[in-house]
Write a structure and sequence with these properties.
Blueprint: H1 11-40, H2 51-67, E1 77-84, H3 91-94, E2 108-114, E3 118-119, E4 125-129, H4 136-140, E5 151-157, E6 163-170, H5 182-189, H6 205-211, E7 219-223, H7 229-250, E8 254-258, H8 261-267, H9 270-273, E9 280-283, H10 284-288, E10 294-296, H11 300-307, H12 310-320, E11 330-334, E12 337-341, H13 343-355, H14 360-381, H15 390-395, H16 398-407, H17 413-422, H18 424-431, H19 437-443, E13 457-458, H20 459-472, E14 478-483, H21 491-500, E15 501-509, H22 523-529, E16 536-540, E17 542-543, H23 548-554, H24 558-561, E18 569-570, E19 578-582, H25 588-600, E20 606-610, H26 615-624, E21 630-631, E22 644-648, E23 657-663, H27 665-669, H28 675-683, E24 686-694
Parallel strand pairs: 2-4, 7-15, 7-16, 8-9, 8-14, 10-13, 14-15, 17-18, 19-24, 20-22, 20-23, 21-22, 23-24
Antiparallel strand pairs: 1-2, 1-5, 3-4, 5-6, 11-12
Helix pairs in contact: 1-2, 6-7, 12-18, 12-20, 13-14, 17-18, 17-20, 20-21
Bound molecules: adenosine-5'-triphosphate (ATP).
Adenosine-5'-triphosphate binds near residues 199, 203, 207, 545 and 654.
GO molecular function: 3'-5' DNA helicase activity; ATP binding; DNA binding; hydrolase activity
Organism: Halostreptopolyspora alba
Protein name: AAA family ATPase
Length: about 725
Amino acid sequence: MYPLDQDAFDPEIRTEREFMDACRAELARMRQEIGTALATGAGEGDAVVDKYSNHALRRFRSQMVEELSDLDNVPLFFGRLDYPRGEVYDNAADGVREGGSHTRRPHSDLVYVGRRGVRDSSGEPIVIDWRAPLARAFYEASPKDPMGVRVRRRYGFDHTGVLSAYEDEPVDRPDTSGGGNGLVAAEIERPRTGPMRDIVATIQPEQMRLVRAPLERTLCIQGAPGTGKTAVGLHRLAYLLYTERERLRKGGGVAVIGPNRSFLSYIRNVLPSLGEVEVSQTTIDELTGSGITIERADDPQVARIKGDARMAEVIRRHLWAQVQPPEEEVQVTHQHRTWRLPCTDLIEELHAVLGRGVDYGAGRELLAQRLAHLVVRQMEQAGNPVATTTLRRLRGHKAISRAVRQMWPTVDPARLVFDLLTDQARLARAADGILSAEEQGTLLRTPRPRSLRAMTWTSLDAALIEEAAALIAPPGKLGHVVVDEAQDLSPMQLRAIARRVAGSCTVLGDLAQATSPAAVHDWTTVLTHIGRPGGNIEELTHGYRVPAQIINYAARLLPHIAPGLRGPASFRHPTGALQLIRTAPEETITATIAACATALAQEGSVGVIAADHDIPELSQALSDDGFPHTVLSPDRTPPQFERLTLTPVTLTKGIEFDTALVIEPARIANSEDRGLQRLYVALTRAVSALHIIHAEHLPGPLAQEPATPRRGNFR
Ligand SMILES: Nc1ncnc2c1ncn2[C@@H]1O[C@H](COP(=O)(O)OP(=O)(O)OP(=O)(O)O)[C@@H](O)[C@H]1O
């Protein structure tokens, strides 16, 4: 509940609630009108030439109906700007009646800011979309630059979405020092249940600057845990769709790329709540996967080689090594005559096609075409009549097809990579002078799986397969992508993304949270591999998730995992946020269950984070004690989230809980090469409280009791 809940009988609150109801009614009317037009085909032309525009109109209308859907409990406006009368609306020119309206007051022009624009039945805007130019002042006006605004109002809502409070912030007086942050703090502290929410009502200026950066600009945003990178990326996408929808649609659409399905299910509601229903959300493995199933992870030494950009050249060589000189002349029998193509001609044609630099798949087509053409030339030279269809028929002639198959075989990208990784001689040929003999030995899969079907694939294999697939036929393009948790992507995965994007990217991540052995360790290199070397590297420095005590404690790991980085400035320090609970080894599970029971007695979500191999035992214990819980999995979207989530530590990135219980930090730190980075991620998931339960010694930097934190500062 908001600390600033005001009396429901306060006349101002009553008036604002009535206006909210009126806006909802207008939204329903807008949706109904468009729905009726869609059903009746009103405004569509009858002529054949109208087909395309009718289709476009119908698509636009059905999208509008979806975008205008009235989401339960999502308030239609969250803020208001108060301007001097006449500053925004021209009452005389608009022919507005004397007494004005709710937004046109005798002494003020009021601009309501919400998740989507709403108009009344006369077409008058009564709520402005947060992305519209007029809404900019809601986020940016300050006593230093009031942008014409007198007062900014923010609204608070109870847990059912009913408007229950408001807070006015005068911005036109130089002596006021901001203020008006009660509702922002309350919004950030609001207990979490279920998936991530939008932050549209409280986006901060340092975040808004990035959200509104122009489409042409690639941004790479570094930020400590909880600084709002994901939130900024998603809101940026919504903003770009609002300002550049057609351009992005023509460019192939937009996508969010995240690390795994449980992360995507966590963020899945944010864009729809902003009215954006057409954004595809995919994992990096789905993007690169080409239908294979990822069943295991690579050993770190193998991962480092497989993820390396040098593999692109190895794959390229291995693919083109499939092209072979002809084994014999080609004899084409057509209409009772046989035409011969000697090997010298075949070789000449092969070189001519290779010299054109076309993709592998297109090269095959071209070779067939050229061989058919050679036959046609012979026919013409012999004075035979050549029908216009002859060339096409010869292209499909079985002798020509057989020759093309032998010289330029069709290639299945997965088989190609399988052969490369499992055949020492082929690997040696393709990697000669690129990978050392030792690296080739590390890369070679031993023992050799008996067949392609018996191969178990890794995420990094998928990127190799995608590299091969793209050399055969280039993939479709996207207009813009948001790449989250980018600190973990290998150069080969970044290349796969680069190939897909026609325009710019928004790259989000935190180098201190990089756990993948194949990851790139600086953003300049990431931008180079993603094909946008001129992108801007930006940093978010204010933490919105993690209380100061917790972030300061976790930041003790930074000198060991990312020496150049600092923790964010957290402005929240709830009492009792951090607890270290030492148990006897046989008591760890009992202590975890007791901590879950205590946490579940409070509002909000509870996450138990443990080393992956400890999850089955914990899940069993929770079930035995009657605690319903969701267990996160990398490739499954949970049908629903229970309040209690059991999270393998490898799936904690990007998500958060009101209360996080981290079990046995030492086991997490010792589970993998970059275990301390993994632990840093685990320790920074809590919004309100972190309980660390351990029987083993805490990893070195965490061993001493946490000191009382310095108080942070919230801008
Ligand atoms: N301006 C804001 N107003 C309200 N809440 C915010 C704001 N900025 C961020 N948050 C909240 O802070 C939390 C952390 O945000 P987010 O997940 O985007 O951070 P992140 O930088 O991506 O973190 P991580 O590195 O852990 O993935 C989320 O609950 C988000 O909604």
